Amino acid sequence: MKTMASPSLQFHLLPSLSKFWSSISPLSQHHTHPFSSTTSLRFTSTNSTTTFTPKPLSPCFALTESNSPNSTQPDPKTLLQDIAESFDLPSDYFAKFPKDLRLDLNDAAFDLSNGPILDECGKELGETLLNLSRAWEVADTSSSRSLVAKLPLIEASLTGTAKSALGKRLVAAGRRFQSMGQYGQGETQKIAKAMIAAGRALSAYSTSAVIDKQPKEETKTLKFGALQVEITPTKANIGAAIALVFGILTWEIAQGVQSTPENSLQYANDNALMLAKSLRGTLLALFYASTFLSALTSAGLVLLGIQLKSEKN
User: What are the sequence ranges of the domains in the chain?
Assistant: First the structure.
């Protein structure tokens, strides 16, 4: 049987509970407070107060220069060795080239040895490149392989200027091999890839060196198939004189043909006479056209010689 507390007892307990909660509240407020910051902690007791203030965290990061040129730059000697390996071909490989590829091979030889090669590359490297150029011109694969194998050995003794000159020549010659397309098992493309890669590395390798360059004289070259002729002011003037003489000769021949009257032509029948008159007109047109073209060529060569002379000066 439950017993219920009397109302008077309940009213008597309420003041006591109020005093109890009021005594607890300051203590809870004193011991429970939010942290003032994330880097300082405060612990408080009834007897003493101890404050711990740790040092601010300052993480240090070691930055490594990973993009420095020395760490990413390939070794030119290794790239030159790749060229030597790409020339490991059968002894008659170049000799079997068709006519168009032989022309490309001659162009590669010209790009490799064009200009003042001994002055730019030095005696040893210059003579090696000249011999290699001659080997390409005669399609000598064995000599080409032995000469290319010397390049990694010579590279260590090259100056910055010589490396730069060698790099430019390798890139130019490599593009000639690249234009040959997929011949055979793709050997020409392997040669082109190795030469261009080594050439670009050598050119970039020597950019940090101080190079004192003399003004390079620009040369113009006239090509007729495999024939290559360097154009100079003297050669231009000589060509103009030859064109002028040829023009005078064709003019005299045209005048001689024209001075022959048509009524002096005597043939057995009318068909032969008509054929002779047609041939006479054709010859006149041909010789007059040759005279005009010779005069135009002579004038153009004279102007070209004057331009080359002014550029040289």
Answer: 73-209, 231-312
